[in-house]
Task: inverse folding
C-alpha cells in the first residue's frame, strides 16, 4: 500500500510539471495574441516588465523580435504608420510614461525608428495600450498603462 501511495504522489507531481510547462515567454506571447488579435508565431520575447499590483494598477512592457512578414497583418484603420498624432506623442513623452523606472530612459526609442506602424487604444480615462512595430529591425513593442 505504501508503494502505491508513493507511486500516486510521483504521478501527481509529474503531471503537475508536465501540464504546467508553459514558459514565461509563452505566457507573454499568448497575452499579446489575446490582447491585440495578432499571430505572434515565430516571435521571441527579448524583454518583459510588469508592475501590476494587487489592485490591477501598473504597467506592462514587452519587446519581441518578430519574423519579417509580421507587419503584413497590421491593417488600417487600427494600425497607423508614422508619424504619431500630436496627442499620442505628448502622452508617450510625459514623465513616468513608457520609461525605465531606474534609468528614466524611454523604453521605446521613438527617435531611432524610421519606418513603423503603431496601435493606440484608450481603455478608460487613465488607461491605454500602445503597440509599435519597427519594420526595419522587426522589433515589436507593447506598452500598457493602467491607473
Result:
Amino acid at each position: 500500500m505504501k508503494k502505491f501511495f508513493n507511486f500516486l504522489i510521483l504521478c501527481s507531481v509529474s503531471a503537475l510539471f508536465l501540464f504546467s510547462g508553459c514558459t514565461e515567454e509563452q505566457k507573454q506571447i499568448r497575452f499579446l495574441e489575446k490582447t491585440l488579435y495578432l499571430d505572434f508565431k515565430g516571435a521571441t520575447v527579448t524583454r518583459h516588465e510588469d508592475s501590476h499590483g494587487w489592485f490591477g494598477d501598473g504597467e506592462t512592457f514587452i519587446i519581441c523580435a518578430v519574423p519579417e512578414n509580421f507587419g503584413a497583418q497590421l491593417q488600417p484603420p487600427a494600425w497607423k504608420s508614422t508619424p504619431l498624432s500630436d496627442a499620442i506623442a505628448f502622452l508617450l513623452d510625459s514623465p513616468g510614461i513608457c520609461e525605465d523606472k531606474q534609468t528614466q530612459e524611454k523604453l521605446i526609442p521613438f527617435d531611432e525608428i524610421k519606418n513603423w506602424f503603431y496601435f493606440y487604444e484608450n481603455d478608460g480615462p487613465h488607461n491605454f495600450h500602445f503597440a509599435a512595430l519597427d519594420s526595419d529591425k522587426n522589433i515589436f513593442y507593447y506598452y500598457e498603462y493602467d491607473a
User: Anything to note?
Assistant: The beta strands are 44-50, 58-65, 80-81, 116-122, 128-134, 139-146. The two ends are 56 Å apart (CA to CA).
